Amino acid sequence: MPHDYRSPEPDDPPASSAPLATAQHQLARAVEILSYDEGLHEVLATPRREMRVAVPLRRDDGRVQVFTGYRVQHNISRGPGKGGLRYAPGVDIDEVRALAMWMTWKCAVVDVPYGGAKGGVTIDPHAHSAAELERVTRRYTSEIMPMIGPERDIMAPDIGTDERTMAWVMDTYSVNRGFTIPAVTTGKPLAVGGSLGRPTATSQGVVHTARAALRADGVELAEVSAAVQGFGKVGSHAARLLHEAGTRVVAVSDQYGGVQRADGLDVPALLEHVAGTGTVTGFGDADAVSNTDLLALDVDVLVPAAVEGVIDGDTAGRVKARWVVEGANGPTTSEGDRVLAERGVVVVPDILANAGGVVVSYFEWVQANQAYWWTEQEIAERLEQRMLASHASVSALARAESVTLREAALTIGVRRVAEAHQIRGLYP
Ligand SMILES: NC(=O)C1=CN([C@@H]2O[C@H](COP(=O)(O)OP(=O)(O)OC[C@H]3O[C@@H](n4cnc5c(N)ncnc54)[C@H](OP(=O)(O)O)[C@@H]3O)[C@@H](O)[C@H]2O)C=CC1
Ligand SMILES: O=C(O)CCC(=O)C(=O)O
């Protein structure tokens, strides 16, 4: 009996707040809005290909440990799989399935010619040396070789991985094939075919969509305060760009906790502190705040940019922000979403708000395939144009159909993927 990936109850939030339950519930709601039948629902819900691999590692001290890695291609009807690679202790197959499904709708919402994929290794990157992480990355890449490639499935950084990881993946793949193939990963260093603008693209997209959402209510970024949860690749640049836009950034956090200052943090000084200590905690001239309390601060804009499921039903009841702009994937559970909507909080959903990363990844892949690189200005302009156009279509649909921005974004994404299935004839 095959596993059923559908969520049966589009109207009621699922009992589980796990990422896959949230992703399945969101799909079920879009299927309901689009009046699709059960067969098409099943096609859209079911991951196309999955691989689970053992990743043995010889530690620096000579011991051997075996980790588990995954790659899931949720849907490849619109093009090759696309999505990040996550290194975190909590990675499991269901989390990777959820993240891959969100990639499918995200790529369709911003209309890049990709399907959705995601990978992960169940490992704490903080507990390993760079040499160990390189060996893990090379072994993981070798194991999933049959699934990846510039025309099959293209990786990018996610939690716990970075541009160096992407260089190792690219090198391992290229060495196995016998020549250099930069387009197998995106988010690479510039020296090996990366793109200008990719390191800040996700955060830039968050700021573009935040600005657009506020302007819809006649408000400017320079008039508001914000709190940002997560201070990694997405959160740190989001805080900096918001600060540069004149927003009073009053709190930020990482996995060790957060810092807050009511009249605004000195974000450039905070970035220097983090470069020196590896954490936002202990930053002078600011008070400590926990990750949970940060979500309930009296701010205008909340940017969750860390992990899934942090805004559940309880937390959502305590959110004071008027806008939640989802830098992270799946930060809001279905119950959290229901509570926020009931309370009139505008949620700019992950598959739109954080899509700037995959947009510039697409630009990087196009540049690598053509071996011709664009200027920073060209990339910045094309990113802004695509983010604003995508935001405009999502908000127009939300207004026309009286649905939330998330429901509108999912409807657009799911419809584009379903159309590809129908036109290709994969679905009768
Ligand atoms: N990188 C990208 O281009 C994109 C990323 N995303 C999503 O954005 C989110 C962040 O990714 P990214 O910035 O790349 O990852 P990073 O690994 O660079 O940063 C993650 C940040 O979250 C913090 N963190 C980890 N666990 C927790 C926790 N339990 N509570 C609070 N903070 C925590 C980390 O703290 P510490 O530094 O202390 O470990 C770090 O500051 C993820 O949901 C990812 O899927 C979405 C689109 C694109
Ligand atoms: O840049 C990419 O290809 C994908 C980044 C990613 O993993 C995401 O958007 O969640």
TrEMBL record:
The organism is Cellulomonas iranensis
What CDD domains has UniProt attached to this entry?
NAD_bind_1_Glu_DH
Annotated Glutamate/phenylalanine/leucine/valine/L-tryptophan dehydrogenase C-terminal domain ranges read 195-425
- Kindly give the Gene3D superfamilies that the UniProt entry links to this protein: Leucine Dehydrogenase, chain A, domain 1, NAD(P)-binding Rossmann-like Domain
Q: What is this protein called?
A: Glutamate dehydrogenase
Asked if the Swiss-Prot or TrEMBL record annotates the protein with the keyword Cell inner membrane, the reply is no
Family stated for the protein in its record: Belongs to the Glu/Leu/Phe/Val dehydrogenases family.
| Stretch list, region Disordered | 1-21
The protein's GO terms of the molecular function aspect are: glutamate dehydrogenase [NAD(P)+] activity
Matches recorded under InterPro entries: Aminoacid_DH-like_N_sf, Glu/Leu/Phe/Val/Trp_DH, Glu/Leu/Phe/Val/Trp_DH_C, Glu/Leu/Phe/Val/Trp_DH_dimer, Glu/Leu/Phe/Val_DH_AS, Glu_DH, NAD(P)-bd_dom_sf, NAD_bind_Glu_DH
One Pfam family, short name please? ELFV_dehydrog_N
Keyword annotations of the record: Oxidoreductase
